[in-house]
Design goal:
Elements lengths: L1 H19 L3 H20 L12 H24 L8 H31 L5 E6 L3 H11 L6 E7 L16 E3 L1 H10 L4 E4 L6 H11 L5 E5 L13 E3 L2 E7 L6 H35 L5 E7 L5 E7 L24 H8 L7 H8 L3 E3 L9 E2 L2 E2 H4 L12 E3 L1 H4 L9 H16 L3 H14 L8
Parallel strand pairs: 1-2, 1-4, 2-3, 4-5, 10-13
Antiparallel strand pairs: 5-7, 6-7, 8-9, 11-12
Helix pairs in contact: 1-2, 1-4, 2-3, 3-4, 8-9, 8-10
């Protein structure tokens, strides 16, 4: 958008201004064309990550979208009877120079992306599940692709050594699917490809039950399958056809949108609530000795341990950093001020520091749970099947479960089960508008505080 605006302004300053003088309607036209171009390119799918890798089709799409933008601009000026107010030389030059500039910029971007890919800065870290001849063929097919962003980090297979020996060439076998889950917790894995035949349905389902809790894309390789579907039924990893099984939630430009939402809205909320936070901090300090803030370790994105800030609600010598014992009604560990701020969730306000400055929390998302939290004497991951799937996105200060009444004490398995169900629904249906709706509903849900102690 900036590049389009720069080209239009440069031609205006070089050709129109010396002849016609200052004319503000040109600035409006430049801004309108720049915005239209951005929207047209988005519709044409040339902002997709793969488009930056220089496929020829993207240049045709860019030229087509750019032409449509100018057809719209000319049509608007015609029906508004404003065509005689714009220089035809400026409009024609804007179209030609703009098109050449955009194509040159895309070519430069392609060269830069290719260089970064070769340097390993834009790699798609890929794990392959399976073994035998099918896996060797898959690895060979991925290795032959030119300028590929894929980097195979290892092979994983649940079968024994006699049925799945270590490869003599290429990536090494690093363990079983259970090892892959732990591996993905400790280092970045972006993509998991199954090289098993579709007929191995039982094995695939068993492995998927372990892997779906990870924030990764999961694909089933179809390059050796005898059963063929229509081409549009497949997606492709380079030239290798695959069937989509699971997609990592909130990816690509959605990550940017959520990050901007968190930073902008979080900063505004922090500024607006600063007086309230100051008063709460003062009340905590006056009510009992000790610091106003309290840090607690919780599970964050991909099971990472993070420290979240809260206002201290317990006596300083009875604080429970790991939440090994749930707070109950009339808990003697909670101070007088602590009861009020816990019931109204004012104790959660310092988590805005996590959102704005640390970036390990979002405004909206599954609430982060303390590492030793339990329901009916069982850790949450033992009480709920697939519990860790809620950690596929960054946790939040408030969430879909909280505004639906599932906040506060989780002393039964049903309560934590329902909370997880709501968290998974949020993950699968995320949008910026959904986040905004949850934020607007949060103050209303705080009025129902019967489960918050």
């Amino acid at each position: 958008m900036g590049l389009v605006g720069f080209v239009g302004l440069a031609i205006y300053l070089g050709y129109v201004l010396p002849v016609e003088g200052m004319a503000w309607h040109y600035f409006a036209a430049i801004a309108g064309i720049a915005v239209l171009a951005m929207l047209a390119f988005q519709i044409a799918d040339i902002y997709q990550v793969q488009a930056f890798r220089g496929h020829e089709k993207q240049y045709f799409r860019l030229a087509s979208a750019w032409s449509v933008v100018f057809l719209i601009a000319i049509s608007v000026s015609f029906f508004a009877k404003a065509g005689d107010q714009f220089s035809r030389v400026w409009l024609g030059s804007f179209y030609v120079v703009g098109l050449l500039t955009l194509l040159a910029f895309r070519r430069a971007l392609f060269i830069l992306v290719r260089r970064w890919t070769r340097e390993g800065r834009l790699t798609l870290r890929t794990a392959i599940v399976g073994g035998g001849e099918a896996t060797e063929q898959l690895v060979a097919a991925l290795a032959t692709q030119k300028d590929s962003e894929l980097r195979v980090v290892g092979l994983f297979d649940d079968r024994g050594e006699e049925r799945s020996p270590d490869a003599t060439a290429g990536p090494r076998k690093l363990g079983t699917v259970d090892d892959l889950v732990e591996f993905a917790r400790r280092t970045r894995v972006d993509l998991v490809i199954f090289s098993l035949p579709i007929s191995a349905e039982g094995r695939i389902l068993q492995m998927l039950k372990k892997l779906w809790v990870l924030p990764v894309d999961i694909r089933l390789s179809a390059h050796t399958n005898k059963l063929r579907f229509r081409p549009r039924s497949y997606s492709y990893v380079g030239n290798v056809p695959v069937l989509d099984v699971f997609d990592r939630p909130i990816t690509d430009w959605d990550v940017v949108m959520k990050w901007l939402f968190d930073k902008i809205v979080g900063t505004l909320a922090l500024i607006a609530l600063a007086p309230v936070m100051a008063l709460v901090a003062l009340a905590v300090r006056l009510d009992s000795r000790g610091p106003a803030l309290f840090k607690q370790k919780r599970h964050g994105f991909n099971n990472e341990l993070i420290e979240v800030y809260k206002f201290r609600s317990m006596y300083v010598d009875q604080t429970d950093a790991t939440a090994s014992k749930l707070v109950t009604k009339g808990d003697p560990r909670v101070t007088r001020v602590g009861r009020f701020i816990r019931k109204t969730s004012l104790d959660e306000l310092p988590q805005l520091f996590n959102v704005v400055f640390k970036g390990n929390l979002s405004l909206v998302g599954p609430r982060p749970h303390a590492v030793n939290a339990k329901a009916e004497e069982r850790h949450y991951d033992e009480a709920v099947d697939g519990y860790f799937a809620r950690h596929r996105v960054k946790p939040g200060i408030t969430g879909w479960a909280q505004i639906n009444g599932w906040r506060g004490e989780t002393d039964t398995q049903e309560k934590i089960q329902r909370r997880v169900e709501h968290d998974l629904f949020y993950i699968e249906n995320w949008s910026v508008l959904f986040d905004l709706y949850i934020l607007v509903k949060t103050p209303v849900s705080l009025l129902k505080s019967e489960n918050a102690y």
